[in-house]
Amino acid sequence: MMRVSLRLKLLLYFTIVILLSLSAVGIAFYSISAKQLQKSAKSQMVQIVDNAVHHTNLYLSSYQRSMVALLTDLRVKRYIDLPADREEYENYRYMTDIRDAIVDPVWIRNPEIEALYIIGYSGNALYYYNGGSEPSFKPEDTAKQIRYFKENTDESGRLTIMNYSILGEKTPMMTLIRRIRGLRSTDMKGFVGIEVKAEELSTLWKGIDLGKDSYFFIVDGEGRIQYHNDQTKVGSIVPASLGKQISEAGTEMFRSSSEGMDRVYISRKAEYSGWNLVVSIPYSQLQKPLNTIRSSIIVVAVITFLTALFLASRFGKSITTPIRTLMKGMSQTEKGNWKFIPLPKHRDEITELMIRYNLMVNRLSEMVDTVYRAELRNKEMQAERQKAEFQSLQLQINPHFLYNTLETVVCYAVIQDSDEITEIVGALSYMLHYSVRTNLEEITVANELKHVMYFMVIINHRIGRTFEIDVRVRPELLLRKMVRLTLQPLVENVFQHAFRQGVEDHHTIIIDAGEEGDSFWVSVQDNGCGMALERLEELRAKLSENRLADEEDRGSAGGIGVPNVHRRIQLVFGEDYGVTVESSPEWGTRMIMRMPISGVKELSSPAGQEAVAPILTLPLAGSG
């Protein structure tokens, strides 16, 4: 057979992987170059926007300089201080003087200004209109204008830009207005306003192609849009999150989706007015050159990936095919089918591994067969030993109890001619029949209580009085499973040890049951003489030995009944379960059997009612 070294295969395919890695490194460097291109494009865009914003600031500041002439002129301040009941001639004189001295030079310097007006709080108002006669307003119109400007201008006298126009809404206007002080006091006495067509500001941006869906807008200090390419947005409030970013970003570019699209914003704050000039560009527009680069990279990456995938498939197939054959053989081995693996034609390290596997399977099959037979014999012996222990335990009925019972039956037969003999013999017959049912270890609580009932029939005749057991087991627990012949020995233990001085009127036995987590417990409690601490510790130590009691233990604490019940529960359910004992001389004794909740069948309650837990009392009187 031709031997091909696995090392040679790995070397060949790893060489291909290295070549692919070098290609990937080249693509990574290309990606870095693309990032630098993106950075350069952003820098260029920032420079364009900074330049445009700078010219816009200069453009708007020229209007403010025109307003300064009005704000500082004494004639304007005197006019603002005039009372509302001024003479009409005086109003005309001020209007003519201010127009000749201030307004006409303003028209010359800034012909794009549409209107200029001076309005005092007292109702004095001078209106100048560029290119036509001054508009006339009624006193109520002037009062309305005063109220509007008071509500929407800065109280300290800073410049306010708004889209409100006293000339109406026929042509969109941008209004620059400030409050002015009078000559006689430092309090604000009126307003000085300039109105410019909004389209004049847009001419500054015509030479700059920001691209589709890009626009410019002005936001005042309260977040209100004073100018926008989209006239429908003028006067609206920018989203809170966007307004916060504009105020915190400073001169940095930032991204936001507050307007429903992922956009890039550049904001510049005008020092003289305090409002922000903001340019908004879709992020996808900045990413467009990079998208082209990215698409090219994706195409190259896909082709490279498919090539590498094909080569990796071939490489993997050459390795995994023999390994899969080996795995199939192991799978058959796990099922107990000692199957030999067929060897491939070529020879390499994996072939050598298959040869050694076949040798191992041959030897293991022999060893496992030997161990399996030995283990089978051990399990059969263990099962027989446990069965013997069960049967031995089931047949360990207290002989003294049987002897005394038979003597009682004889006495009744000789002395009395009554039905008591039938009752005793019937109860004894049931108990003997129940005791020798060796084919069933798990039984319901109800069956164990029935066994105790017949036991009490005999006990009542033996003690010569009626003794009733208080059974507090809830109805839904009567079908819980427990170990057979475990409840009656604990009840018998009460009469032998707790009531050893005889049964008194105050003596009671309580049988109860319940659940704790995943455990089910049944308890037998008495108010008899109880156990001293030494005797209780002796019984607990015997229970901890986890073994069956024998005749030698009959005289010890608890006799042989309690330890055998404890061990019997452990043989059925495991050593995590069994009997625990609580006792004190003043209080009495409580024996608790703990078992797992398994094979449960619960009693259902009538519709609309909750399950009740009545106290059941067994009527175990001696005379029926």
Can you summarize the main beta sheet? 6 strands, mixed
Give, in spatial order, the strands making up the sheet with the most strands: 16-17-15-14-12-18
Helix content percent band: 40-55%
What Rg do the Cα atoms give? 53 Å
Q: How much of the polypeptide forms β-strand, as a percent range?
A: 15-25%
Oligomer: single chain
Low-confidence stretches: 599-624
Question: N- to C-terminal separation?
Answer: 96 Å
Overall mean pLDDT stands at: 77
Number of strands: 18
Membrane topology: Multi-pass membrane protein
Keywords: ATP-binding, Cell membrane, Kinase, Membrane, Nucleotide-binding, Phosphoprotein, Transferase, Transmembrane, Transmembrane helix, Two-component regulatory system
GO molecular function: kinase activity
Protein name: histidine kinase
List the helices and strands and how they pair.
Layout: H1 6-72, H2 74-81, H3 88-109, E1 113-120, E2 125-129, H4 139-152, E3 160-162, E4 173-181, E5 188-197, H5 198-202, E6 215-219, E7 225-228, H6 240-249, E8 254-256, E9 263-269, E10 276-282, H7 283-334, H8 349-394, H9 399-415, H10 420-435, E11 442-444, H11 445-463, E12 470-471, E13 481-483, H12 487-498, E14 509-516, E15 519-526, H13 533-544, H14 561-573, E16 578-584, E17 588-596, E18 616-617
Membrane topology: Multi-pass membrane protein
Subcellular location: Cell membrane
InterPro entries: Bact_2-comp_sensor_kinase, dCache_1, HAMP_dom, HATPase_C_sf, HATPase_dom, His_kinase_dom, Sig_transdc_His_kin_internal
